[in-house]
Write a structure and sequence with these properties.
Blueprint lengths: L9 E4 L5 H10 L9 E6 L14 E4 L7 H15 L3 E3 L4 H6 L2 H4 L10 H8 L1 H11 L6 E6 H7 L4 E4 L9 E4 L2 H13 L4 E9 L5 E10 L2 E12 L8 E4 L3 H13 L4 E10 L4 E8 L6 H5 L4 H9 L9 H9 L5 E3 L1 H10 L4 H13 L7 E3 L11 H13 L1 H16 L3 H9 L2 H7 L12
């Protein structure tokens, strides 16, 4: 339980735009009203998802953490000092910035993040591939590249070219032939990503069903985990329709990964699972909570576990065997996010008539939606959750492809940490940030 004896817990989300943030609200709402935490949300976007929810107390507009990290951190310090929060919950890529200062933030508010070296190993796709190799864990054949010559020499079509840092598939390119390779290489050249310093990877396609394992750790010990298979693939490779599953070997592997990097907090790892050979192939890690409704409906409340770990509550470790036994009793739970499916179809060129058919399938519970619960539009838990679906459908029916492209671009820009922002985030001075806590209103100047 994320409560204490004197008051309802107060939780501050570092963003409210992502699907992860919205689904985290539902997970926190799964308890009695007098024990339900009070949630405030920071976000630079006035129309962020979580603002349209009866499950939050307030939304506060803040600077963008990647575009102006110093202003974001200064704003965050004020909010923590003024808000008397028990937990700071970074639901998306803010984890990367905040992990650099975890030891400076934790004395003031509960925060579950690993040491920055561990964060970088999982956030960076090239580093994660190296970690898998060190642990002798299965992954597709991958090659590290830093120059155009290396990129052109190792590509075997088809393959994927992946930047070290990217979000929602924005830095992942499927390359089918030499012409496509040259376009990707030209773009990377223009962005300064083939300068001999930035590391990217070229990866062969994995075998099996796209799947995800989500986990919460405390100081390297696995305390909770859940996994699902994708039933559909959407924009950026995300899975807008899912089914809970049980791959026992994956629980063993994720425990090994967390132990190796002494992970603290949440993580989810994408992989492909070949059922015929009981073999996963891990493709990338995301050092954050992810989308958790499927897990919650299977009885695994990852967000509550993360809040407990953030507050220093001791949770008993869970063995891979016990996790597999629990998962075996909860396989087959189907969920989906209708308006993410609609956005994906519009992004791929679906017409208004095709979108109407998709809407009817959702309303009537047919096809992909049969025996499936929606992860985002959940009026029984949050009546306001119907507003985003109406707003998004109105835009899609006005101009399907253009509107979907605009929605995806604006959403990803609001929470992503592109390769171009990584160096700036790493350059924020620790000494300057430490001084922020000394006074509420008199902020130290950044060094020139």
């Amino acid at each position: 339980m994320i409560t204490n004896q004197t008051k309802r817990s107060r939780i501050l989300f570092t963003e409210g735009t992502s699907l992860s943030a919205r689904q985290s609200l539902y997970a926190l709402a799964h308890q009695d009203a007098d024990e339900r935490p009070i949630v405030d949300v920071l976000d630079p976007a006035p129309l962020c998802q979580c603002r349209f929810s009866g499950l939050i107390r307030k939304w506060v507009r803040c600077p963008h953490y990647a575009k102006d990290p110093e202003a974001f951190l200064e704003f965050l310090v004020h909010q923590i000092q003024d808000g008397d929060y028990d937990v700071l919950l970074p639901t998306h890529e803010q984890v990367y910035l905040l992990s650099r200062f975890e030891d400076l933030i934790s004395p003031h508010v509960g925060l579950a993040l690993p040491h920055f070296d561990s964060m970088d190993r999982l956030q960076n796709k090239a580093d994660f591939m190296q970690l898998l190799a060190e642990l002798d864990l299965p992954h597709p054949r991958s090659s590290l590249v830093t120059t155009r010559e290396q990129l052109e020499s190792v590509c075997e079509f088809p393959c994927y070219v992946k930047l070290g840092h990217s979000t929602a598939g924005s830095g992942v390119f499927r390359v089918e032939n030499n012409a496509a390779l040259q376009r990707v290489a030209d773009q990377m050249d223009r962005d300064g990503l083939l300068d001999g310093r930035c590391r990217s990877i070229v990866q062969q396609p994995a075998v099996g069903v796209q799947s995800t394992v989500q986990a919460v750790f405390t100081r390297g010990e696995l305390v909770a985990a859940h996994l699902f298979e994708a039933r559909a693939i959407g924009v950026g490779g995300m899975s807008p329709a899912r089914v809970s599953a049980n791959h026992p070997v994956v629980f063993q592997h994720v425990a090994e990964i967390g132990r190796a990097v002494q992970w603290h907090g949440s993580v989810f790892i994408d992989y492909f699972y070949d059922a015929d050979n009981d073999r996963p192939e891990y493709i990338e890690a995301n050092p954050r909570i992810g989308e958790t409704v499927n897990a919650s409906l299977c009885g695994v409340n990852l967000v509550r576990c993360l809040a407990d770990v953030s507050m220093g509550i001791q949770l008993a470790p869970s063995s891979p065997t016990s996790l597999a036994e629990r998962a075996a009793t909860a396989t087959g739970k189907r969920t989906q996010s209708f308006y993410m499916i609609a956005i994906s179809k519009a992004h791929e060129g679906a017409s208004r008539v095709e979108l109407l058919r998709e809407l009817w399938a959702w309303v009537s519970g047919r096809g992909l939606y049969r025996d499936s619960e929606d992860e985002l539009t959940r009026p029984r838990e949050d009546l306001w959750s119907v507003l985003p679906v109406f707003w998004i459908l109105a835009q899609l029916f006005w101009s399907p492809q253009k509107s979907s492209q605009r929605i995806v671009r604006a959403t990803v820009e609001n929470y992503s940490v592109p390769e171009s922002a990584v160096r700036r985030l790493k350059a924020v001075p620790r000494q300057w940030f430490a001084k922020l806590w000394e006074s509420k209103r008199s902020m130290p100047e950044l060094p020139s």
